[in-house]
Amino acid sequence: MRRRSKNNHNVIDLFCGVGGFSLGAARAGFKVSGSCDVDKRILAAHERNFPSTHHLNADLSNMTGKSLLKMLGEERNAITGIIGGPPCQGFSVMGHQRNNDVRNRLFVHFFRIVSEIKPLFFVCENVPGILDDDYKALRESGFGLVDNDYLLIDPMKFVASDYGAPTIRARIFFFGIRNDSGITIKPLDFLPSNTVKKIVVKDALRGLPVKIDPDWQEESQGWRAIKHEEDSFFGTRLSGLVPSQVGDKVAIQRLAKEKKVSGCLGTRHSKTILKRFREISPGEIDRVSKSHRLNPNGFCPTLRAGTGSERGSYQAVRPIHPTEDRVITPREAARLQGFPDWFQFDCTKWHSFRQIGNSVSPILAEQVLKILYKRII
């Protein structure tokens, strides 16, 4: 069983997904010591990017805080924070809000695990729909598990584009600081800096290959050369800022030596679809597929994830490239979500888009968690 120093500022990422929250935490200064997800395929992608993190494939609704720590090889007093984004599909207004969706209860289980481990802080994120009146009882059930031990900050809505990401994806964040921590923090502390440069679609996609062969279907065919990004806040987060013990070594080396990235996979469109796409202007929506052509001078709308195999394996609607008559590639989606070029996803397009669409922007996560990190150290 592994034991960790109390001074590593360790965090556990519950419902970790592919690792947008984990990457934000690592770049903010924390060490992602453990992660948990019920989806083996997603967890495999997370492990590829966080090889030194202890990964646990488990259903948290069936675990206690004590059993979770035991399986992760952790001591309770070595955990500084718990972060996570419980499944949000049941709350999402973009899908079909379901009051009786069994996944909704995982929101409460997040707070239950926090109450049992009692880390210094916790951060939980979800979709804006979680604040609907229909879910008031659910929220109060979760908050009631921690409100005696934690200072709870009112839920805050963050839009990723305000923090330097190229997407208008909005998320609700719930923060808690343990009462005996001596740390004071206010909602105003999390306001975006006036110096943040707005990154639009053309900025985000700059340097990636524009012409994508629809026959590039295999993972090996998706590795393509890119041009260097300028030295800017966004640019450095694409090519560098690799936290210690984070990242797939092969992907990092190929980016550094060959200037190549993965995920430039094509999509075969019929002639009918190509004709429709050709007639759609930036900002307009295809009346049949509902695909939105990206505006090069605007922000990317929220990328959707589609559904898992347990709900029919429906493919999410993918945006149309701003200048090409095709939907975007997984690597383009990753750029628009704020993931670095060295970050790896599943080898398939379907799973890659699911992983990207379900993630919090790592740029937003970094900016928010950095505020907490500076208070703690």
Folded structure, characterized:
The structure is a single chain. By secondary structure, this protein is α/β, with parallel strands linked by helices. It folds into two domains: 6-192 and 361-376, 3-Layer(aba) Sandwich (Rossmann fold); 201-357, DNA Methylase, subunit A, domain 2 (DNA Methylase, Chain A, domain 2), CATH 3.90.120. Helix content is 29%, strand content 14%. The chain has twelve helices and nine strands. It has helices at 20-28, 40-49, 65-72, 105-117, 136-143, 201-205, 233-239, 249-258, 271-278, 330-337, 349-357, 362-376; strands spanning 10-14, 31-37, 54-57, 79-84, 121-126, 150-159, 170-178, 224-225, 260-261. The strands form two sheets. Strands 3-2-1-4-5-7-6 form a seven-stranded mixed sheet, sandwiched between helices. Strands 8-9 form a two-stranded antiparallel ribbon. α1 runs parallel beside α12, α4 (105-117) packs parallel to α5 (136-143) and α10 (330-337) runs parallel beside α11 (349-357). The longest helix has 15 residues, at 362-376. The chain is globular and about 60 Å long. The two termini are 27 Å apart. The relative contact order is 0.16.
